[in-house]
Design brief:
Layout (H helix, E strand, L loop, with lengths): L4 H21 L2 H18 L3 H25 L6 E12 L6 E10 L4 E10 L10 E11 L10 H7 L4 E3 L2 E8 L5 H14 L5 H12 L7 H9 L10 H17 L4 H18 L4 H18 L6 H15 L7 H24 L5 H28 L1 E2 L3 H28 L4 H23 L6 E2 L4 H15 L7 H4 L4
Parallel strand pairs: 3-5
Antiparallel strand pairs: 1-2, 1-4, 2-3, 4-5, 4-6, 7-8
Helix pairs in contact: 1-2, 1-3, 1-11, 5-14, 6-15, 7-15, 8-9, 8-10, 8-14, 9-10, 10-11, 11-12, 12-13, 13-14, 13-16, 14-15
């Protein structure tokens, strides 16, 4: 499949969307900075005339496409009053006395609105849950454009396709959902599998938070500890979760002696089933697209190239929804993968050539952890003004434990379907694994200097990001000719 031409397509798309950001935010400094970076890219890369014309043309097309897409999605929507049934798809952690989340509204005339953002005062002390129905009456407002907003949460909502919000509404609990969909039934069944036979509610909530991405279930103490150690990514269902699930399913079906084509097909079905259960969040979809690309290459008997998979999925994800490039989750997920592919893997190959097998594994793990922590720390400093210096060391042993938790969660679901009487053994092991995870996080959170407040400069941030961009796109040996011309 397209390997190296897609690099130029990604360059064009990224620079084009940066120009779109400058146009809509009316920021001359952003426009000048993007132009300067594009010129520096041509100079430092010594791009040939033919390729430079291709990139400039691609930037122009990407800019026009981005402007058209965003203008279409920001089209004027009238506010109107609604009276119907509301169902929560995701509940946010909010201050006491408020309710926040995403959900769907179903009206009596059989019309419905998907992905509505609700943030209201909870005057009656109502307890909300994702498996309940609520009668809703209020005014539906169009979601304001995120440009000019002081927080990245607006970009998150637009990246998820949210176009309406309810700021003033009345919610009344009407009971359980009488006709849940198949996905809602599977989600409820998965949650019951994760809750069964747990003696401690805190561990059970952490178990569900890791498998389902429900950070709102965490206690305030555990939430602060995970945040202070730079491991909040464990609760964002993304590449780690989907990768572990796909690998486990592949070897599970392999142990059943199924042919390769059936192993790959059932693995793909299992990955998208898991993505649907957790709600098809943008990070989950991006990771699922990556798995889809890899499995497609294997089905076509083509060699799997990690860099090609990364660039192709990034290109098609942004082409389908350009809003994602300004979402913090998109930048963190693709930034970490880019750091591993562009810095971690090459460094591990160079440093582990003269060591034995055990040392090679340790050096490779350390290089990958440092490279992933580098880009995530850069974004964490920029958006939140904090730095977790121990994150690269903490992730070395917390990620394997979290991977075991994800595998045990999948086994719990399968066991509850086939051998429900044996579920207690799996969840007994899961509870002790969660205890080990919480203990390690608690110890790491007490390390001196676990969180440092850092003041940042936007020019330094963009310069570091541009230099990192160059490192990721650096030609590999033997492929420089492919990167300087389009076949």
């Amino acid at each position: 499949m397209l390997r190296y031409p897609i690099i130029w397509a990604n360059i064009s798309l990224v620079f084009g969307l940066c120009f779109v950001n400058a146009i809509f935010s009316k920021n001359a400094v952003s426009f000048a900075r993007t132009s300067l970076f594009l010129i520096c890219f041509f100079v430092l890369y010594r791009v040939r005339f033919k390729t430079s014309c291709l990139v400039i043309g691609g930037v122009a097309i990407a800019t026009l496409y981005g402007c058209f897409f965003i203008q279409h999605s920001c089209r004027h929507i009238e506010k109107h009053t609604i009276d119907g049934t509301f169902y929560f798809e995701k509940i946010f952690r909010t201050p006491s006395g408020r309710i926040g989340g995403l959900g769907n509204v179903y009206l009596q005339d059989h019309t419905h609105y998907n992905d509505i953002y609700i943030h209201i005062k909870n005057r009656s002390g109502l307890k909300v849950a994702e498996d309940k129905l609520y009668h809703l009456r209020g005014t539906l407002y169009p979601l304001r454009s995120p440009w000019g907003a002081s927080q990245s949460f607006s970009y998150y909502l637009w990246a998820r396709g949210v176009r309406y919000h309810l700021a003033y509404a009345q919610l009344t609990n009407v009971g359980d959902n009488p006709s849940p969909s198949c996905i809602q039934r599977l989600r409820w069944y998965f949650r019951k599998s994760l809750q069964a036979h747990f003696k401690d509610a805190d561990r059970s909530n952490t178990y569900q938070a890791i498998l389902l991405g429900k950070k709102e279930l965490l206690s305030e103490k555990n939430l602060n500890h995970f945040f202070d150690t730079g491991t909040m990514h464990l609760f964002a269902v993304s590449g780690l979760h989907v990768g572990v699930v796909s690998t486990f399913l592949f070897f599970f079906f392999k142990s059943l002696l199924l042919p390769k084509i059936f192993r790959l097909f059932f693995t793909l079905v299992g990955v998208f089933l898991y993505a649907s259960i957790v709600g098809f969040s943008p990070s989950t979809l991006r990771a699922s697209y990556m798995v889809l690309f890899v499995i497609t290459m294997q089905l076509c008997s083509r060699p799997v190239d990690g860099r090609a998979a990364f660039l192709n999925t990034a290109f098609f994800a942004l082409a389908m929804n350009p809003w994602q490039i300004w979402d913090v989750g998109f930048q963190l997920s693709y930034g970490v993968v880019a750091g591993i592919l562009g810095l971690g893997t090459p460094s591990a190959k160079r440093l582990s050539m003269q060591h034995n097998r055990l040392m090679r594994s340790c050096v490779a793990s350390l290089c990958i952890s440092i490279s992933a922590s580098f880009i995530s720390s850069l974004l964490t400093i920029y958006y939140w003004g904090i730095w977790t210096p121990w994150a690269f060391l903490v992730n070395l042993f917390l990620i394997p434990i979290a991977s075991c938790v994800v595998i045990l969660g999948v086994i719990s679901f399968i066991t509850n379907l086939i051998f429900p009487n044996c579920l207690w053994m799996i969840n007994y092991l899961s509870e002790h694994t969660i205890s080990l995870l919480l203990f390690c996080v608690d110890v790491c959170a007490r390390l001196p200097g676990s969180v440092l407040k850092v003041s940042y400069n936007s020019n330094v941030f963009y310069t570091c990001l541009f230099l990192f961009f160059l490192c990721v796109l650096k030609p590999r040996e033997g492929n420089s000719k492919l990167l300087t011309r389009i076949p």
